[in-house]
């Protein structure tokens, strides 16, 4: 992993190249190890990277990072930050709920119902949460339906929208801007500040989409 300073108080440890589940598992393990360090205020996993926020400016931050990497390598990857759960998400595909389904099908050379079967037929793993509270980046998308982000992002994506962006899929927890192709929508609440924890999904969870 490459270690770089994001600021006086932050370090970023990152892999180069393609994100994989094995790499994410090592990032989870590294995050768990980092949280046991008194010098670290917070450890935030990302896609192929981990950001460490330090309590104080550390002259020996590079030494700290090296020690964490060595300890994690010796321990091996972690299955998840917490015990993974199996979560089913009911989805209404196409129509007003998934306006980009026909475009995705055309880009992939498939019929719309084939895109739905491919999307709902996969088992996904939550790599990390980011972008907006409760937004889970899900790995495991069938490569046949991998499409790039839209050329022009929408300013308003309805809450619950299920989208595809590159090799990943995800669900927009709240209304807001977004550039992924929208293929469906769910009524499940992905984030509710009144719950503990407020996010429905967490790193390591296994997710299946169920067509409605």
Describe it.
By secondary structure, the chain is α+β, with helices and mostly antiparallel strands. The chain has 2 domains: 2-75, Gyrase A, domain 2, CATH 3.30.1360.40; 86-211, Cyclophilin, CATH 2.40.100.10. Helices cover 22% and strands 33% of the residues. It contains 4 helices and 13 strands. It has helices at 21-34, 61-75, 101-108, 112-120; strands spanning 2-7, 10-14, 40-46, 49-54, 86-93, 124-129, 136-139, 154-157, 161-165, 168-171, 176-178, 181-185, 206-211. The strands form 3 sheets. A 7-stranded mixed sheet has the order 7-6-13-5-12-9-10. The chain has a 4-stranded antiparallel sheet with strand order 1-2-4-3, with helices on one face. A two-stranded antiparallel sheet has the order 8-11. α1 crosses α2. The longest helix has 15 residues, at 61-75.
Structure summary, number of beta strands: 13
Radius of gyration: 18 Å
Strand order of the largest sheet: 7-6-13-5-12-9-10
Describe the largest sheet.
Answer: 7 strands, mixed
What string gives the helices and strands in order?
Answer: EEHEEHEHHEEEEEEEE
Tally the helices: what do you get? 4
The name of the CATH topology of the largest domain is: Cyclophilin
Shape: elongated
Count of distinct structural domains = 2
Q: CATH architecture of the largest domain, please?
A: Beta Barrel
**Percent of residues in helical segments?**
10-25%
Please state roughly what percent of the residues sit in beta strands, choosing from under 5%, 5-15%, 15-25%, 25-35%, 35-45% or over 45%.
25-35%
CATH top level label of the largest domain:
Mainly Beta
Mean pLDDT: 90
| Structural class category | alpha+beta
Classified in CATH, the superfamily of the largest domain is Cyclophilin-like
Distance between the termini: 42 Å
């Amino acid at each position: 992993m490459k270690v770089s300073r994001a600021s006086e108080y932050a370090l970023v440890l990152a892999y180069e190249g393609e994100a994989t589940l094995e790499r994410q598992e090592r990032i989870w393990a590294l995050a768990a190890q980092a949280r046991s360090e008194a010098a670290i205020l917070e450890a935030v996993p990302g896609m192929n990277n981990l950001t460490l926020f330090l309590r104080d400016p550390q002259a020996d931050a590079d030494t700290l990072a090296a020690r964490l990497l060595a300890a994690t390598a010796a321990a091996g990857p972690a299955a998840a930050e917490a015990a993974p759960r199996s979560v089913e998400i009911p989805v209404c595909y196409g129509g007003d709920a998934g306006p980009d389904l026909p475009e995705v099908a055309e880009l992939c050379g498939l019929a719309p119902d084939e895109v739905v079967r491919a999307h709902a037929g996969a088992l996904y793993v939550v790599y990390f949460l980011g972008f907006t509270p409760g937004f889970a980046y899900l790995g495991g998308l069938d490569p046949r339906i991998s499409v790039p982000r839209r050329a022009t992002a929408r300013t308003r994506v309805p809450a619950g929208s299920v989208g595809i962006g590159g090799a990943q899929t995800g669900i927009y927890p709240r209304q807001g801007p977004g550039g992924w192709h929208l293929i469906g929508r769910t009524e499940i609440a992905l984030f509710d500040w009144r719950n503990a924890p407020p996010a429905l999904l967490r790193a390591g969870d296994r997710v299946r989409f169920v067509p409605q």
